Structure formats: C-alpha cells, structure tokens
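User: I've been trying to design a sequence by hand for this structure and keep getting stuck. Would you show me what you'd pick, starting by listing the structure so we're on the same page?

Assistant: Good idea, let's start from the same input. This is the structure you sent:
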C-alpha cells in the first residue's frame, strides 16, 4: 500500500509546484480578505458548513485549484498560508490553523509529511493525509494537505 501512497505523494507534490497555486497563496499571505481575518479556532468551531465565511474559503483561487485536481481518491484537500491559517479547501476542515503541527510545519520547512492511516474527523473516511510545500520557485509559501482515501488505494 505504501507504494501506492508514494505515487500519490509524487502527484500531490507536483500540485504544490504549480505557479497558479503559489500565486494564490502568496496573495493570501500578503493581504487576507476580510472574510479570513481574525478567525479563532473557537470561531471556526462555531461555523456551519454553509456559513458565508466557510463558503468564501471554498471559492478562493486556491480552492478553485483544488477543485480542478479533485479525483475520486481525494477525501479532502486544503491549502494553508505561511502562518498556518486556511487559504482554501474543498470542504470545511476541523482546524482553522495547522501551525505547530507537522502537516503544516514540515512542508513549510520544504519537507513532505505523511500521517498515519486513520478515520478523519472531517470526512469520516479512512484516509492517510499527505502534506507538501506550496512552492514559489524553491521557497515554501504555504502548505497543501490532501487526504487519500484508503478504499481507493
């Protein structure tokens, strides 16, 4: 199974090198839109999946990029800014910021991260998460995390 995960890691790492995704994250890093400012984890926990703020994150350039890459093996996907807060996602994540967690910090250090196979709280699916840097050339500007569905490996 690890060989199949490794093949997906290579594909996901290529997404992280896309100049359009890097530009979307750099724009968020430079100036967050109003809907993305001042959100705490407590605020995030209180937002429903249909809240206007949540929907706004699903319509960012980063989210549009993720939608263009969505495949049946993708359980979830989200992009974080350099500070760990969200720049876009396919569906609302359980955490608003992943700063301080290896899924964000390793990619920000230029490394690929792989979690363990587990049932994800956000999706309810058995999956393994992979985190890669979003690169502007060779410089990490954010992180991209994709949950790979176990049943599709």
């Amino acid at each position: 199974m690890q060989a199949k995960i490794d093949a997906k890691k290579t594909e996901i790492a290529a997404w992280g090198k896309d100049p359009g995704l890097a530009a979307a994250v750099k724009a968020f890093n430079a100036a967050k839109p109003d809907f993305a400012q001042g959100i705490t984890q407590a605020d995030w926990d209180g937002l429903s999946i249909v809240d206007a703020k949540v929907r706004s994150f699903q319509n960012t350039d980063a989210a549009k990029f993720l939608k263009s890459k969505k495949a049946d093996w993708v359980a979830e996907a989200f992009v974080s800014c350099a500070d760990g807060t969200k720049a876009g996602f396919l569906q609302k994540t359980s955490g608003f910021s992943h700063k301080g967690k290896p899924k964000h910090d390793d990619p920000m250090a230029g490394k690929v991260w792989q979690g363990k196979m587990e049932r994800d709280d956000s999706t309810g699916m058995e999956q393994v998460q992979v985190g890669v840097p979003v690169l502007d050339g060779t410089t990490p500007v954010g992180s991209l995390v994709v949950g790979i569905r176990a049943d599709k490996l």
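That's my pick for every position. To get oriented when you compare it with your attempt: The two ends are 7 Å apart (CA to CA). Residues 28 and 87 are 6 Å apart (CA to CA).
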